[in-house]
Write a structure and sequence with these properties.
This protein is α+β, with helices and mostly antiparallel strands. The protein folds into two domains: about 5-135, Fructose-1,6-Bisphosphatase, Chain A, domain 1 (2-Layer Sandwich), CATH 3.30.540.10; about 145-259, 3-Layer(aba) Sandwich (D-Maltodextrin-Binding Protein, domain 2). The protein has seven helices and 14 strands. Helix 1 runs antiparallel to helix 2 and helix 4 packs across helix 7 (about 245-259). It is globular, with a radius of gyration of 17 Å. InterPro entries: Inositol_monoP_metal-BS, Inositol_monoP_superfamily, Inositol_monophosphatase-like.
Amino acid sequence: MTEQQFAADAADAARAIALKYFRSGLTVEDKEDSSPVTVTVADRGIEAFLRQRITETFPRHGIFGEEEAPINLDSDHIWIVDPIDGTKSFVTGHPLFGGLMALLKNGEPCLGQIDMPAIDERWQGAQGTPTTFNGAPCRTSACRDLKSAFAYTTDPLLFTGPSAAAFDALRRSVRLIRFGGDCYNYGLLASGHCDLVLEIGLQPYDYLPVVQIVKGAGGVITDWSGQPLGIDSAGDVLASATPQLHAAMLERLAGCAAA
């Protein structure tokens, strides 16, 4: 079994767990650090299942997930797992929550997957092959100009203090900006429906699974300084449909930092 097929099969099974609990009146608890809510049974159940499946199939691989402690991070192969990306959507019955998986080889994302259980959509990207949407190749748009760009960010309220200037630069630069979506925004980007995604303060399990999806569809994804994303990145992410659009937005962000 290839790693791509493994990820797809694991997501099929994880979907069943997510949909069992979706819109079921789950009890929700806050994380100890007062970060966004987590769905106790669904989040933890899916991650436990995925960890078991990975360990059985690839016993020498490491695992870095949201709900449990990392294991075997000195391995050349590390699986990244976010059982439910968009927990606020999940607990409020909104269907735009996803399951994320990535595989790092020597620290570089070589495989990524966005699975959307409630709407039966899936993007998968693997190094050396085109990104697919529900099994068919997809492609980012050809947008090169910020003033023509359709942009997404999940939550504008996260841009506080010095980072507020970055959101303002985005708002003033693009043609249209929409909010919400979490991981779904990167799928929309990969399929050419939006042109730019700007996020702040993400965790490795939020952004590493989407790296190869964006790149394999022809897009560009980095941190706000234009550096490649890795497990130790700060979590401020810019993804763009074309290199030209990406460079233009990086210039705006650099101007914010200098101001």
